[in-house]
Specification:
The structure is a single chain. Helix 1 packs across helix 2. A hairpin with a 5-residue loop joins strand 11 and strand 12. Helices cover 26% and strands 27% of the residues. The chain is α/β, with parallel strands linked by helices. It has 3 domains: 66 residues, no CATH class; 124 residues, Nucleotidyltransferase, domain 5; 82 residues, Nucleotidyltransferase, domain 5 (2-Layer Sandwich). The N and C termini lie far apart (53 Å). Strands 6-5-4-7-8 form a 5-stranded mixed sheet, with helices on both faces.
Length: 301
């Protein structure tokens, strides 16, 4: 539940059950970056007179977090398959996977324009942006981050950053099994983490981000586990041989991060006022890039 103090114009009835129009200017010190609140979702809790008679009134209102009306567009470029998704008030309007042999830089802006066009929205209608920060492909992540920064600067709307591993794990419905997203990190390693659904169907992280060999990952598994992510395509046979009675694999479409899930997780962050500094945010790299490794080798001091 979220609380706001919202100013009301002179003449508003002081009757608790009276419906009135009010100015939706949020006066809190650090409001979430949303531009629209549905009046039907607001509940009058108390009324306080500010200053002298005939001055402005202040209303203390409450509403459920998910009742904020907000269009969020989510982008994922952490794998070779790009994704763009648009949601409005938690409902999916558009969801596109770009699993084609074209670079992210060639197709991403076109995919964003297509998603908005299909949903009959303009870029000005978007209330916030969400981007998958990684881990994943270094080049892909940089392209995604640069694109979202440009969109944010152009529109003046806020950006939320989410973990690629969180996105994959969230695509698994509530289950008693351990969830282990894996992304192919090249160099015979995977990016991974562990998740579990707890009470009330809330997904909880059980570890930090990991970069390790599949041989070391399976040593950590002692129970039935759902593996999800593009790393399954590379290491499915190895996981099945190593964990014949424990490894569970969802259907192929779930192994790709979906833009709509990026948007959903981003919406939850923006709703809580957790947005990124557009100027300074960067991708999440668990390990140094190949260029950094080579530079360190040639500059040992």
């Amino acid at each position: 539940m979220t609380w706001f103090v919202i100013s009301s114009p002179e003449g508003l009835s002081s009757e608790p059950n009276q419906r009135n129009d009010w100015d939706q200017t949020i006066l809190t010190a650090e409001p979430p970056r949303t531009s629209r609140i549905s009046k039907k979702d607001l509940t009058l809790r108390s009324l306080r007179l500010s200053g002298k008679p005939n001055s402005y009134l202040c209303l203390l209102l409450e509403f459920d977090d998910w009742n904020l009306t907000m269009k969020v567009l989510g982008i994922d470029t952490s794998t070779s398959c790009g994704a763009v998704g648009l949601i409005d008030d938690g409902q999916v309007l558009s969801d596109t996977l770009l699993n084609i042999p074209v670079t992210h830089s060639e197709r991403l802006l076109g995919a964003v324009e297509s998603a908005l066009r299909e949903a009959r929205c303009s870029v000005e209608d978007v209330d916030g942006w969400a981007i998958s920060l990684g881990p994943g492909s270094f080049t892909g992540l940089r392209i995604g981050v640069s694109t979202v920064k440009g969109l944010a600067f152009a529109t003046g709307k806020s950006v939320a950053g989410v973990s690629t591993l969180d996105v994959l794990a969230s695509q698994v419905s509530p289950t008693p099994y351990l969830i282990c997203p894996i992304l192919d990190a090249r160099k015979k390693e995977v990016y991974s983490a562990f998740y579990r659904y707890g009470e009330r169907g809330l997904l909880r992280r059980q570890s930090g981000d990991l970069a390790l060999r599949p041989e070391d990952l399976v040593k950590k598994i002692t129970e039935q586990t759902i593996f999800i992510g593009d790393g399954v395509r590379t290491y499915r046979d190895f996981l099945f041989r190593s964990l014949p009675s424990l490894a569970i694999f969802p259907a192929a479409p779930f192994h790709l991060p979906h833009g709509s899930m990026v948007a959903k997780l981003g919406f939850e962050l923006l709703n809580k006022g957790e947005y990124l500094n557009v100027t300074t945010f960067s991708p999440t790299y668990i390990r140094p890039s190949e260029a950094e490794v080579k530079w360190q080798e040639t500059h040992p001091d």
